[in-house]
Structure formats: structure tokens, C-alpha cells
Structure prediction request, 84 residues.
Amino acid sequence: MSKVQQSKSIPVQMVIEQMLSILHTLGLPLADQTRRRRERLAMAVLALADVPHPDKWPQAKSITDQYSLTTRKIIQYWNTHFEE
Prediction:
């Protein structure tokens, strides 16, 4: 779990790592980004998909669910679910 802040709980680290793996698989150029920037990108996508915990992947939202968040709501989501 070295790619995520160690101060976060294990489930939060896991879900962020899982999203980073998905983003890498999709071909996003993450290698040039700082650890913190990669973590913030993963948390933003997780917030948009409404996946706060590794067990919530089956309920992930998509564009067809008409679920969206403003920037302010994304930050609130981080504070609530990702220990920011």
C-alpha cells in the first residue's frame, strides 16, 4: 500500500489502490504524477462513482445513473469517506 498515505485506514488505502490500478489499466499516464496527485485523482473518480469502500464496487454509479457532484461536493465526499 505504499502508493497511498499510510495514515489512512486499510479499507481506504485499498479502495484508492484499486482505483489507481484501474486508471493505470486504462492507460492514464500516472507515473509522472506525484503520489499525492495520483491519490487525489483516484479519490475524485471514486467520489464520482460513489465508491467509498472496497465492498461498494458492485454499487458503483455510472453516467446512466445521472449521479453527479460539484467540486465542493467531491471535497466533502473526500472528507467524509477518505479521511481527508
Summary: The CA atoms of residues 29 and 35 lie 13 Å apart. The two ends are 17 Å apart (CA to CA).
